Amino acid sequence: MPTLIELPEYNFQAFLKDPVGGEAPAAFSEEEAAKVHAFHRQLPGYEPTPLVWLKGLAASWGLGGIFVKDESCRFGLKAFKALGGSYAVARLVSKKIGLSLEKTGYRYLVSDEGRRKIGRMKFTTATDGNHGRGIAWAAQQLGQEAIVYMPKGAAPSRVQNIRSHGAEVVVTDLNYDDTVRLARRNAEENGWHIVQDTAWEGYEEIPIWIMQGYMTLAKEALDQMADLGETPTHVFVQAGVGALAGGVIGYIANRLRGRLPKFIIMEPNNAACIFASAVAGDGKPHSVTGDLDTIMVGLACGEPNPLSWGILRDFPCCYVRCDDYVAANGIRILANPLPGDRFIEAGESGSVGVGLLELLANHNAFGGIKEALGIGPDSRILLLNTEGATDPVNYREILWYGKYPGPLPPDGRAAKG
Predict the structure, then answer these.
(1) Which of 69, 70, 78, 128 is catalytic?
(2) Could you confirm whether 223 is annotated as catalytic?
(3) Which CATH fold topology does 82-203 show?
(4) SS3 101
(5) φ, ψ of residue 293 in degrees (nearest 5)
């Protein structure tokens, strides 16, 4: 029976349910993932990002294994987002010139002949930072233009990162979802090509390509775990509109049929649209409104991607909404490793998984959730560090000055195992 657990002293809610499961989504099959991976391997600077095995932390918390897929070094851009943006832009360009991306490949698109056939294109998107930088980078590789819209409060470092790839940046006075609508309207009026990671009526092909692009991250992670003789029992995935979560879970559902891990979805309190949709229980996606304020700006989205919602409705067993301190604690934990473990630079949206795991491992109030999820000595937990310190000022204040402090574990900490 679905269960809503509220822990007001932690400003935390969890919604537990039995996953429906069902047919693994065909768009995220191993065959499609192989095509996407083959494309990414052609890009300049491609190499698999590390899978960091935190043995010391797992032993300290009474867990079988903690594995962090570290996207902080992807293409030198400090985030995973270029995986989806580059694949979608390349598919869009290939479609324009009537050629198959699988047959032409990246090299043709950047050749003199390819660029002559493509002509001039202008790409646009709305972003908190990482997705926009990925689109700007992809456009730069192809010798094309990009204009990127950002919501109010965008960190200056993220604005500059996007401009460093030759893109025009417009910081609005709107929240994320309204900024998406502005980018869409301007694209329609000016004949630009919008590359957005959410969908609406008549706009579904490109968001699917973006979600498929994220399969490379999941494929690498499972391949790396397999090389270690491991398979995840639990996968913690953060969600904004749900494109990353949909792509990752969709791929894993195809690859690990019959032995699926437990999927846990994580969102910030003020932008928990996937959580709200799950709790509603009517099978439909639901939006949340307001300023969507959170340090996890990559997750500050109020409207679910309808293309990923079916996956996120049917396969996860737990949905979490949490406060900013959870992400801040995750940053501090990963930056201060136990002996033998490796340092990981994690940004606010990348650190929430280990922050949540700390609560489950060390705080008695979370014992019921931990037990329901079956987390213990036999658990192999996969976490996704989706970004590095893309806002270095905030990152430093969290580490140096203890910004966004979290609650200390009470006396008599949660039992290990």
Answers:
(1) 128
(2) no
(3) Rossmann fold (3.40.50)
(4) helix
(5) -65, 125
